[in-house]
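hey can u check if this looks right to u? its 344 residues, i copy pasted from the old doc so theres a chance i mangled smth
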Amino acid sequence: MNENKSTHTRIVKRRKRKLRRRVYYILIPVMIAFLAVLSYGAYLYIKADTVLSNSYKDDGREKSDLREEVVNPTEDNVSILIMGVDASNIRNNENDSRTDTLMVATLNIKDKSVKLLSIPRDSYVYIPEVGYETKINHAHAYGGTKATVETVENLLEIPIDYYVKLNFEAFIDVVDAVDGIEVDVPYELKEQNSSDVAGAVHLFPGLQKLNGEEALALARTRKLDNDIERGKRQQEIIKAVINKAVSAGSILKYDDIIEAVGSNMTTNMTFGEMKGFINYGTAGTNLDIETLTLKGTDSQPGGVYYWMLDEVALDVTRALLQGHLEINDSRTAGRLDTSSGEDF
C-alpha cells in the first residue's frame, strides 16, 4: 500500500516538474519578447526626443494672431502648414528657396479626421511680406517661414498653428525608410532626380512600388498635366507614406523614419506637442484623410503663368476648413488684409 502511494507521489511530482518546464518554456520567451519590445520602445522614445527636438525652431510667436488662446493638440483642433522646399545640398539654396509643395492639414480631435488641402504653387495671391500679389510659392523666397505662414493665413482665413518644413532629402529618405510605397503612376514619365540629372528617373504607368527617388519624381512632375493634378498626386503620395508608416509592419522601421525626418525637417512643434498627434495615427488601420484643392483657371498675362483662384470656390473651402477646426468666423472677420497691389 505504501509502495503504491510512493509510486503515485513520484508520478505526480514528475508531472508537476514537466508542467513547470512547459510553463517556463512558454513564459521565458514571452518575457524576453516583452522586455525586448519595452527596450525598443524606450530606445525609440529617447531617440525621437533627441532627434526631433533638434528639429525644433522657434518661429517667434506663442500662437497665431488668429487664435484667442494657445492651442494644445491633445485637446484642440489644430492646423499644420506643410512646406516642401526646393532646397537641397546639391543646390545650396536653403535661404532663397521657393516652396515646391504647399499643403495645409486641419485636424479635428473629436473625429480623429484630417482635411488635407493642396495649394497650387502658382496660385496668384496677396503676400503681406511684400505688399502685392504674385505666385504663392514666392513667399518663402521673400521672407521664409514667417512670410509663408502669413500668406496662407491671409488666403484661407484660418490660423496656422504649426508648420513643418521639409527638403527633398527628407522626402526621399522617409519613403526609403518605410521600404517604398505603392502608388498608381498615371502615365509614362522621365524626370530628373534629386541631383538634377535629367531623365534619371523613368517610370511606366500602373500600380507599382516606388522608392524615394521615384516617388519624388512622380510628386514633382507636371509635364503631362498641370499643377492641380500634381497636387493630387502629392496628396496621394503623402497618404501612402502616412498609412505605411503607421502600419504594424513598419514598427521596426521607426528608427530609420525618425532619423530621416529629423535630419531634414524644421518645425515649431516641440516633441511634447508632436506626441499629441499620436492618437490620430492609432485611431484605426487608416487615417480618415479627405483631400482638397483650390479651384481656379489658367492665366498667362504678359507671358507669366498663374493659377487664378475661383473666389466662390475659395470661400467654400475657407468655410469648410473653419468648420473642421470649429472656429468662430468672427475671429477672422475684418482681421485679414486682402488688399492687392502691383505684379512684377
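DSSP finds nine helices and 14 strands in the chain.
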